[in-house]
Write a structure and sequence with these properties.
Elements: E1 2-7, H1 11-22, E2 27-33, H2 36-46, E3 50-53, H3 62-72, E4 78-82, H4 87-96, E5 100-103, H5 108-119, H6 127-139, H7 151-161, H8 166-173, H9 177-191, H10 196-205
Parallel strand pairs: 1-2, 1-3, 3-4, 4-5
Helix pairs in contact: 2-3, 3-4, 7-9, 7-10, 8-9
Amino acid sequence: MIKILFADDHEMVRIGVSAYLSAQADMEVIAEADDGTEAVELALQLKPDIVLMDLVMKEMDGIEATRQIKAAWPEAKIIVVTSFLDDDKVYPALEAGATSYMLKTSKANEIAEAIRKTYKGQSILEPQVTGKIMHKMREKPIEQPHEQLTKRETEVLLLMAQGKTNQEIADQLFIALKTVKVHVSNILGKLEVQDRTQAVIYAFQHELVE
């Protein structure tokens, strides 16, 4: 039996959904909560297999409740079931640790199937949610290799571009020769180049030096 905790501040919603899920041969709603605070308390006390979490509730919202449950119990599997698809709900809920994200407009059998799949370790997202995530990923600028360099590694790279040797770099930056060699090795790795010459070429190509 998949043991379920259902948190929602609408009593009629809880009654209807709980009745449907408890009628499933492999599911049992072991507790209900009408606000986030109670949801956290019951989740940590009962350790259900699945927590169905509404987002907009009194006392504490579902996002904060999810965050607190995951902080105290990282293995918790939480399925958000909400009416909201706004960015200020979707992303914070997933960042808080929600395993799956479903809409209340979903059919009852879809919710039940999402519970089964989440119980088995899958993450189920509404198609609209998946679309939002993909769109956000496309909007996110791609990090350039040199943006991974630390401030000190960037200084070493610029001195390399000036033609200075490791010893000269060590003297100018007042650091050990061994430290310079470590920085050079890190620079080559982060820039994904084979040698100092390629690193210097990279620096000029990306206008890190004039």
